[in-house]
Specification:
The protein is α/β, with parallel strands linked by helices and about 325 residues long. The protein has two domains: about 190 residues, D-Maltodextrin-Binding Protein, domain 2; about 100 residues, D-Maltodextrin-Binding Protein, domain 2 (3-Layer(aba) Sandwich), CATH 3.40.190. Helix content is about 40%, strand content about 15%. The strands form two sheets. A five-stranded mixed β-sheet has the order 2-1-3-10-4, sandwiched between helices. Strands 7-6-8-5-9 form a five-stranded mixed β-sheet. The longest helix has 20 residues. The protein is globular, with a radius of gyration of 21 Å. The relative contact order is 0.17.
Length: about 325
């Protein structure tokens, strides 16, 4: 009996090793170029966390608006997106939804190339560098109106992306303000130009919790291969926890993939961002349906969805706490 038990254990171990050695290749598509919001992916890849789950993960760069359609066409398995982009995708018939929150707080805001601006009213007559996001302008129109300002009096120019220079420079093409991230482009500009002011969206809208960005996939992926999805999420969670606990090493790992950025910049960005990776129970990735419903109220106000809109289909059950 003992020999038989040992034999069965050995066979089980060999079979387990064989299964793990046959890695599934999956593709993760970023919504932009690599930055600290993606650091957990690169740490998971570098430290072998994906490999431990039997996954060979390819990370692709992209740009806003492309990720959702690529996933819907099943040309990528996972992607980085935003709550409003998920809504827009579903409104356009794309079958994608959120499976995890990469950040529990919306760290976006208005970076202004002047320290003399104190209210949104002061931005009337200024130029805004648009990054072309879904519902970007209608949300700013609403935000300005709530603060007694008129966004129609702002000159809109195409900045090409969130936080793309020449903002913060003396270039004649530089917009006066942009909608960017406190943990990324704002830090980049602030390190070069102290005369930049930042208005956090969460303070302007009085909303502390709003998932930005989120991790997405297509519904058939969860329906037909939930085990792979859960394995992918376990590895990603390990990556973000490791980055939080070992920030210096995480900075080095990211810089290997984006060598154009300085260690000082990446370290400061990570210091701002990493506390927002976890919810109040210190759990990574989980979301509350109430936050999505609260967001749906905003979308209703912005006339993006009808009254009583139910956002339940925009988020997978595996993401809910």
């Amino acid at each position: 009996m003992k020999k038989s038990s040992v034999f069965l254990v050995l066979i089980s171990l060999i079979f387990s090793f064989s299964c793990k050695s046959k890695k599934d290749t999956v593709t993760l598509m970023l919504e932009w170029t690599p930055n600290t919001r993606h650091i957990g992916f690169y740490v998971a890849k570098d430290k072998g966390f994906f490999e431990e789950e039997g996954l060979d993960v390819r990370i692709l760069e992209s740009e806003s608006g492309i990720v959702e359609r690529t996933l819907d066409n099943k040309q990528a398995d996972y992607g980085v997106s935003y709550m409003s982009e998920v809504l827009s995708a579903n409104n356009n018939g794309l079958d994608i939804f959120a499976i995890a929150a990469l950040c529990q707080t919306d760290l976006s805001g208005l970076a202004v190339n002047s320290t003399n601006v104190n209210t949104l009213k002061d931005l009337e007559g200024k130029s805004y560098g648009s990054w072309g996001g879904a519902h970007e302008i209608v949300q700013l129109e609403r935000l300005f109106a709530e603060h007694g300002a008129d966004f129609s009096k702002v000159n809109i120019i195409n900045a090409g992306g969130p936080g793309v220079l020449p903002f913060g420079t003396d270039s004649p093409n530089a917009p006066d303000f942009i909608n960017t991230f406190e943990d990324w482009a704002y830090i980049e500009v602030k390190l070069k130009n102290e005369n930049v002011k930042f208005f956090p969206i969460r303070e302007l809208m009085k909303k502390e919790i709003s998932y930005s960005p989120v991790l997405i996939t297509y519904r058939d992926k969860v329906k037909n291969n939930e085990e792979e999805v859960l394995a992918f999420l376990r590895a990603v969670e390990k990556g973000y926890i490791y980055a939080y606990e070992n920030p210096s090493e995480a900075v080095d790992i990211l810089i290997k993939n984006v060598p154009e950025y300085s260690e000082e910049f990446i370290a400061e960005s990570l210091e701002v961002l990493s506390p927002h990776w976890f919810n109040k129970e210190n759990v990574w990735g989980k979301m509350s349906l109430d936050v999505w419903k609260d967001k749906a109220v905003d979308w209703t106000t912005e006339t993006l969805v009808p009254e009583g809109y139910d956002p339940t289909h925009l988020v997978s059950d595996i993401a809910l706490d």
